[in-house]
């Protein structure tokens, strides 16, 4: 079994070239309960959890990292 991490919109150097207006970016922020777009550290913290001992008994999970945008 494996664990899956599913990041939402994340501000990175790789996504910096994507053309979007301030209004589009603000709309994403408004749709996110945490009120911001993810930073690489947000995703990295979840990856670190799954790579560490603390997740030793977690398997077969799907973990969205999207600030609550797509709450299930």
Q: Mind explaining what this structure looks like?
A:
The chain is of the alpha+beta class and 72 residues long. The chain contains two helices and two strands, in the order βααβ. The protein has helices at 22-31, 40-51; strands at 4-7, 62-65. Strands 1-2 form a two-stranded parallel sheet. The longest helix is centred in the middle third of the chain and has 12 residues, at 40-51. The chain starts with a strand and ends in a 7-residue tail after the last strand. The relative contact order is 0.33. The model has no long low-confidence stretch (mean pLDDT 91).
Q: What labels would you give this structure?
A:
2 helices; 72 residues; alpha+beta; 31% helix; elongated
**Low-confidence parts lasting 5 or more residues at pLDDT below 50?**
none
Termini separation comes to 22 Å
Mean pLDDT: 91
Q: How would you classify the helix and strand content by structural class?
A: alpha+beta
The amount of beta strand, in percent, is: 5-15%
Largest sheet: number of strands, sense, barrel closure = 2 strands, parallel
Radius of gyration, whole Å: 14 Å
Total helical elements: 2
**H/E order of the elements?**
EHHE
Overall geometry = elongated
What share of residues is helical? 25-40%
Widest sheet: strand order?
Answer: 1-2
- The quaternary state of the protein chains shown equals single chain
The tally of beta strands, per DSSP, is 2
């Amino acid at each position: 079994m494996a664990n899956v991490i599913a990041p939402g919109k994340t501000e990175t150097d790789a996504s910096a070239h994507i053309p979007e207006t301030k209004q589009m970016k603000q709309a994403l922020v408004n749709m996110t309960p945490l009120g911001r777009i993810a930073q690489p550290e947000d995703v990295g913290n979840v990856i670190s959890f799954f790579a560490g001992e603390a997740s030793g008994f977690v398997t077969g999970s799907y973990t969205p990292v999207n600030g609550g945008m797509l709450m299930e």
